[in-house]
DNA sequence: AAGAATGTCAACCGCAGTCGT
DNA sequence: GACGACTGCGGTTGACATTCT
């Protein structure tokens, strides 16, 4: 007996989202915020399950999403983080504001993995494949554990690093929560009222079609302003701490 | 030009964790 | 502690796009 599905799937729409659905979801969230995903589709008038709405918002509609291909620097950072964190995509994604875990996971599976293979690196351990085989051979032939003292020392260091990592991730999560809890709808209306006298409601078509409403660059500017305003409201002390902790982690490595 | 092969990425599924009762 | 409701995560799928033969 498995768990019941998150929603009654009968009569619910599946597959790609239409512009109209996107529009409905965005308008609803901008005006009401997110309190309970399960209620969102009902209240927004969508024939989707809450889970689907959440995914659509997080991966595609959020105003702070960064569009476009990942840079080489970002790619390198993903590789480093993957070596440290493994397939914990959401943790990796938290290091890239505006990028989603899905995006990074897809990028990893379709491109980086391939690149690693071409370079002769193991995609799990990031070691050169030959070296990895040697290590595995060594473990098989000599499974003796280290001395008790050595084991304790290693465990202690690992725990310390884990605590720092957790703390850092908590800070990043808090930042995301704070961004998410701000009333974007209010901000948006204020922003659009100040900048022009056109329709106050956000229209996805407007942002997709330059001929209607404001130009995409103006919309991007507005979104950037929002992101900047969120940033300016935050204390950066926590991020200074992050920097210190990162240095500690580098030393630990 | 056409079909096959391959790549990309949005969306789905099921599980685990958390929280309230 | 047991249970159900809900959210978030990671693995996987499948539709569409692009490249190759």
Automatic annotation (TrEMBL):
GO terms for molecular function: DNA binding. Residues 132-158, 198-220 are annotated as: Disordered. Residues 9-61, 62-116 form the HTH myb-type domain. PROSITE patterns: HTH_MYB (PS51294), MYB_LIKE (PS50090). The lineage of its organism: Eukaryota, Viridiplantae, Streptophyta, Embryophyta, Tracheophyta. Residues 9-61, 62-112 form the Myb-like domain. Its main location: nucleus. This is Myb domain protein 40. Residues 198-209 have a biased composition (Low complexity). It comes from Actinidia rufa. GO terms for cellular component: nucleus. Coiled coil: none annotated. Keywords: DNA-binding, Nucleus, Repeat. It is found in: Nucleus. InterPro entries: Homeodomain-like_sf, Myb_dom, Myb_TF_plants, SANT/Myb.
């Amino acid at each position: 007996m498995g768990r019941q599905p998150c929603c009654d799937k009968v009569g619910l729409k599946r597959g790609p989202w239409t512009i109209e659905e996107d529009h409905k979801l965005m308008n609803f969230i901008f005006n009401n915020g997110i309190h309970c995903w399960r209620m969102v589709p009902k209240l927004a008038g969508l024939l989707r399950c809450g889970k689907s709405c959440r995914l659509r918002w997080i991966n595609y509609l959020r105003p702070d999403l960064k569009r476009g291909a990942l840079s080489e620097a970002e790619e390198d950072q993903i590789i480093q983080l993957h070596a440290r964190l493994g397939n914990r995509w959401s943790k990796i994604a938290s290091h890239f504001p505006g990028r989603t875990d899905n995006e990074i996971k897809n990028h990893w599976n379709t491109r980086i993995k391939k690149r690693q293979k071409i370079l002769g690196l193991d995609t799990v351990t990031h070691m050169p494949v030959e070296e990895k085989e040697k290590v595995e051979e060594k473990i098989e032939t000599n499974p003796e554990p280290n001395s008790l003292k050595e084991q304790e020392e290693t465990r202690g260091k690992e725990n310390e690093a884990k605590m720092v990592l957790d703390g850092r991730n908590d800070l990043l999560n808090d930042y995301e929560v704070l961004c998410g809890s701000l009333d974007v709808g209010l901000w948006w209306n204020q922003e659009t009222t100040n900048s022009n006298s056109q329709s106050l409601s956000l229209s996805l078509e407007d942002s997709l079609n330059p001929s209607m409403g404001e130009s995409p660059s103006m919309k991007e500017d507005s979104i950037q302003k929002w992101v900047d305003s969120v940033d300016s409201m935050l204390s950066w002390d926590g991020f200074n701490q992050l920097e210190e902790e990162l240095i500690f982690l580098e030393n630990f490595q």
